[in-house]
Specification:
By secondary structure, this protein is α+β, with helices and mostly antiparallel strands. The protein has 2 domains: 45 residues; 105 residues. The protein is built from 5 helices and 6 strands. It has a 3-stranded antiparallel sheet, with no helix packed on it. A 3-stranded mixed sheet has the order 5-4-6. Strand 4 and strand 5 form a beta hairpin. Helix 1 crosses helix 4. It is globular and about 55 Å long. The protein starts with 10 loop residues before the first strand and ends with a helix. 11% of the residues are buried.
């Protein structure tokens, strides 16, 4: 495994942990050259799951894209990265439970919004505003008012 800091090709594994659903193994590594530590993830390579976008286009499922979206929504919020990784793993589990190897993006979006709503309301509104493509401040305000009514 190449070190992300110095690009040395040798490292040693310090700690290994299986994810909650057993889909991945998280490994903490230490570079033998610069001694810095980094994390890698290992998972079984499978037939790619396909996501059906709003326009009908199909593209391979990308867990990193999902995580980037969650990170963007949670920017400067007190949400642990582990919680976001957990959401991504749950989405992967949803996909694996499907008899077909494809799922509509809307199903994934709704699932992620539901999880974010429980985790952090501000992150939820940020994610929803992009996912639902709010056209103006009125739509944004309506979503906030609906959140306030739920309290």
């Amino acid at each position: 495994m190449k070190c992300p800091y110095c690009e040395h090709s040798e490292s040693k594994v310090i700690d290994s942990r299986e994810s909650k659903n057993g889909l991945r193994i998280r490994r903490r590594r230490e570079c033998l050259a610069c001694k810095k530590r980094f994390t890698t993830y290992e998972k079984v390579e499978e037939i790619p799951y396909m996501i059906i976008k709003k326009d009908g286009q199909r593209q391979p499922f990308d867990s990193q894209k999902l995580l980037r979206g969650l990170l963007k929504a949670c920017e400067k919020r007190p949400v642990p990265l582990a919680k976001l990784e957990e959401i991504v793993e749950e989405v992967e589990s949803l996909l694996q439970e499907q008899p077909e190897k494809e799922m509509k993006a809307s199903v994934i979006g709704q699932f992620m919004m539901k999880r974010l709503k429980k985790l952090d309301k501000v992150a939820y509104v940020r994610f929803a505003s992009v996912y639902r493509e709010f056209k103006d401040v009125v739509e944004f305000k309506q979503e906030l008012e609906s959140l306030l009514r739920e309290r």
